[in-house]
Amino acid sequence: MATDRDTVLEAAVGVLSRRPTAHLDEIARAAGISRATLHRLFPGRDALIREVGLLGLRRFAAALDTAEVEQGDAEAALRRLVDASVPDAMLCAFLAGENQLYEHDDINDLWEVQIARLHALFLRGQQQGVFRIELSAAWLSEAFFDLVAGVGWSIQDGRLAPRDAAFSLAELFLGGALRRPDAHTPVPTAHSTSDHRPDTDKP
Question: More exposed terminus of the chain, fewer Cβ within 10 Å: N or C?
Answer without folding.
Answer: N
